[in-house]
Please model this.
Amino acid sequence: MATEAASIDIAPAPQPVKAVHPLASLQEDELRTITRLVKEHNPGQVCSFRRALLIEPPKAEVVPYLEAELEGRPRPRPPIRRGQALFYFEGRQEYMEAIVDITNGRMLGQRHLVGEHGPGSDEEMLKIGAAALASSLVKKEVERLQLPANCQVIAEPWPYGSDESDTPTRLSQVWFFLNYEHNKDHPSANFYGHPLDFSCVVDIATMSVTRIDRLPSNLGMSNTDPNARFVPNADSEYAPELQQNGLRRDLKPLHISQPQGVSFDVGADGETISWQKWRFRCCFDVREGMVLRNVTYDGRPVFYRMALSEMMVPYGDPREPLHRKSAFDLGECGAGQVANNLQLGCDCLGVIHYLDGLSVSPDGEPAIIPNAICIHEQDAGLGWKHTNIRTGRADVTRARELIFQLIVTVGNYEYALYWILDTAGTIHYEIRATGIMSVTPSAPGVDLSSLGYGTVVADGVFAPHHQHIFNLRIDPALDGYRSNAVVYDDTFAMPREPASNPHGVGFEVKTTQVDKEQAFDLDWTTNRVVKMINPNKVNKHSRKPIAYKVVAPPTQLGLFDPSSMHYKRGEFTDNHIHVTKYADDELWGSGEHMWQSRGGRGGCNAWANRGRQLEDDSVLWLTLGFTHATRAEDWPVMPCEVFRMHFKPVGFFEQNPALDVAPSTQNVNKSRLAFDGNGTQTQEAAVEPACCRPRL
Amino acid sequence: MATEAASIDIAPAPQPVKAVHPLASLQEDELRTITRLVKEHNPGQVCSFRRALLIEPPKAEVVPYLEAELEGRPRPRPPIRRGQALFYFEGRQEYMEAIVDITNGRMLGQRHLVGEHGPGSDEEMLKIGAAALASSLVKKEVERLQLPANCQVIAEPWPYGSDESDTPTRLSQVWFFLNYEHNKDHPSANFYGHPLDFSCVVDIATMSVTRIDRLPSNLGMSNTDPNARFVPNADSEYAPELQQNGLRRDLKPLHISQPQGVSFDVGADGETISWQKWRFRCCFDVREGMVLRNVTYDGRPVFYRMALSEMMVPYGDPREPLHRKSAFDLGECGAGQVANNLQLGCDCLGVIHYLDGLSVSPDGEPAIIPNAICIHEQDAGLGWKHTNIRTGRADVTRARELIFQLIVTVGNYEYALYWILDTAGTIHYEIRATGIMSVTPSAPGVDLSSLGYGTVVADGVFAPHHQHIFNLRIDPALDGYRSNAVVYDDTFAMPREPASNPHGVGFEVKTTQVDKEQAFDLDWTTNRVVKMINPNKVNKHSRKPIAYKVVAPPTQLGLFDPSSMHYKRGEFTDNHIHVTKYADDELWGSGEHMWQSRGGRGGCNAWANRGRQLEDDSVLWLTLGFTHATRAEDWPVMPCEVFRMHFKPVGFFEQNPALDVAPSTQNVNKSRLAFDGNGTQTQEAAVEPACCRPRL
Model:
């Protein structure tokens, strides 16, 4: 965060912003202070804001505050709150950063971020699309295609990505699709079902089309046929009104109710959540979507910060210009920036509380994203059970989860992101991938699936295989904010040996300390388990350090060549685990500015490869990949593909933390039998009062 | 199923049993026919029945029946129903098998299963325990320990397992625990919290104790101290009434209701289930718990048979006599045999339908297990969603699942087993492991966790690490019962090469045919995906065979030495995937008779290693392992550890099969806001009628 320009002192603002908790999300008045200071610092310029963000106070300043808070001691003065503005001067290429002291209303410095570019937004994408459609180059291509009468061409701008050619200006690559006349007025008409065979490149600062790229649609690597025409293909509609065979009518309503209200509380700050001994901040973040801060359980710190750090979506189609397709949806766009307004009863079922999100408008005003996060409880099935076969007595509890959901739309694609806490001390992170796959044209009658890097999913539509590679940054704080180490356990068969393992059945767990910054992979052959530990506190029974483990399967990593631009940009995509020394400004696995990034400016690899000694200040980065070989079943809209990973206590507690969950009883749960004794569906309460009666 | 004794013709029974569907579960009258025929065949003997089972009719005889059924043609005469009885003559060691023709009421043959032993039951285990406690050898050990006054010693019989020493008689190994005086009358007192330092071996036929084994409880490999006494330790109670700090009281009720009834139907046969285009039989099975038979979707066959085939639970503690601990819970015991009676509102939440289970009593009468399977629908969160950012219109559906739950108690441990079908054409199999870990004594003051193969989880209690290795047998029938093949797809980065992959970003899927019986592993480095295909039917868009894929992570396999008895018995535990040629009598991955089995009598390895050519008759066996390094948090009862695997369509459908699920709307879902405008919890309907309103 060093500033290039000298910092300029400005007199304190007449009314300093009111003190807020050091870990609170950016407040609306803070945002206004940031943009005001930037505007005042740049008289005569029109600032177009991309981001107005909180720079989290240095952890070293926050920890004494949190410790005092936890111990009930008088809290020290909260650290100064600083903000970052990322902006352009209207019509210019230079990407600008300003750092301000929000607390004291002072500009600390401003600089041109040389070689970097700002993130996109839906609003900008729509402008780029309009510019593309207005271009004579594009019109010429449209003319060549001899499209059906009265159809509507849709421009779909994407980040430009990167390849070996240098691209100093900020660019977008734009794909084209169409709606036929008969459904072009439908708000959910699926234009992606009709991909056109060209794209264009737009210089965003000037909003001008600089190049047309033809898209390959045949078995060859390129398509340069000057006379290629559009071949009409069938619609692929997902909207319910457009289903030619109607909708299924036999899925009966299912209602979730909580007649005594919900079990969670939300603090007056609007983001401190208390539920089942958990207490933490669920903060909206423009980039990361949701950030959990200062997660505590029964008054004990567990995690300082947990967030999705980046998501890379590289496509396996090597044909130009498709080779650049590789989205970094957090860095190029922002999971919070494109968060949906979630709707009661549509996106969320049951008894719901919503949190709004805060972004900035181009002119520097707060832009509220209503209902960006929905919070609700969910029954999670059997919690634990045991039946004593001697007495027939069964003890059974149910598991309950508290779910935080945020759904993002990134052009064609949707991700639903979830932080989930449960009644047994586990934190889960879940991702659901849905929406519409990114597709390109397929010439009729050609077996494009034979190429191996994609599937023809409908007439004229080729869906290239791609990867979704997620990276989570986990900053642990197990019973303290100053003692974070990482180890991993491998389980090995013991050698068959008369003295120690005479029957050849023994196996043992061996622990490896991660004492230096490094990257490594999971390994199913040794059941490798990565644990975050507090090396200074042991479980009284096991005599091992208290820990939380990562439960995630080993998944395929980035498939691009180490010499490729994808690899240089990715940073986190070639190992499952990176462990780095804590630094306040190392939050995102591929680095900070991702639009047309060219690598070499930080990220998991660079940081892990420093190999510095770790001294109770380890941060864990977890990479989970999903190689999506496209299916017909994912078209025209994809049923959610679900990934869930877990953070589970290992000796953090002295016994099962769900032991005090009350038994599951019919008296409380009010279930019903589906059918009466005659096999007829029953609407009345067919309540069976005897509960957990002996089996014997 | 060859019989050793010559078959003996018996005159047809006066009233042949009524014809039932070839795939129907064993009926009560059929069970009575089996045991009656066996009794008639053995006059003067007292038969003690272990099992009375249906032998599924040969697939070759069933398929024409199913095809006629599906196509609405007149059905051929159903195949003869045959039954198998497994039994002992009271007080004798010979394990007997009889095969009967149920349809015609004829004994087909009977033989002594030389070298095999019958499965256990809870009733037998309790008898063994009583015999052990009555033995003078055991009494002497108890005396040595100088136990606290008025405590109660509990005997916990287990299967004997196997090791290199030959054990021709049927044995049980018995562990001992105690309850202190103060809680010995509590029906859920956790005696496992007080393990004693010896075990005994019982000859089951004679119910006599043949040997005492001392248990190691120190750092050495054995414990022979003739004067070792019991060292009292603290209780580890799981029962709610015994929680010293009380129960949490802030988890509010959560109710699930279906005001218009459930969406599924149950046929008059009690086991044919119809739900959301799925139609199949959910059959109770004494051994496998639940078997799905003839699973069809929208009238198209998908699977002929799906079931858990075996579960092996080897322990990593190499010390004698613990080295033999390795449960085969299906073959030694039976998931159906020890199924819980599930209770409305306790084990199952919402609107529930129950299926009963059928077993046999020792005297040959039907033994009903009430409510063995619970069936209910569950909301599964976001189904699919897309927002068109140009129009602001969001289309969103929810996913629904139909769940079949069976919970088994195997002594100390519980497994909840689930078949789950969803609205997007996917079938899931879920296992939840809970209950109480098998533990052994730990001498006070000794760091037994340092041994590497277990964890001291409480004062005096050592929980050895162990594995749960599950094996599923999947017999596919994709659009037909006669064309089953298996392939696997690997995804490779393409070499960077100017002509085909100039930017080094391409990757491709390569398919390998499994043309011979074989075993192989999953591989995350290539994202290996195993698919069951119909080689004779292609998806019209992708031009690839229609398929269902297995979605399961690669997990650690058996950790025992290939020379060990565990290995010889396991059969399925050293590869993730086995593919074999279909055979009517190859249903269980470790073979049929598991009590004291010694290997070499069939199972996945043996069958896969035949290496025969496959001819559209492939069966897939999937192994999933969980290496459980024990945690304090798993004690005294273990929060459910959840494993879910999936079977997903790949080109089986021409598009997303959930496309016709009606949109998720507040009008149907009736959600509520948790708090009113003042932040007060609201009990009234705070319904927001506007649904899915535009985000822009």
In short: The first helix of chain A runs from residue 28 to 41.
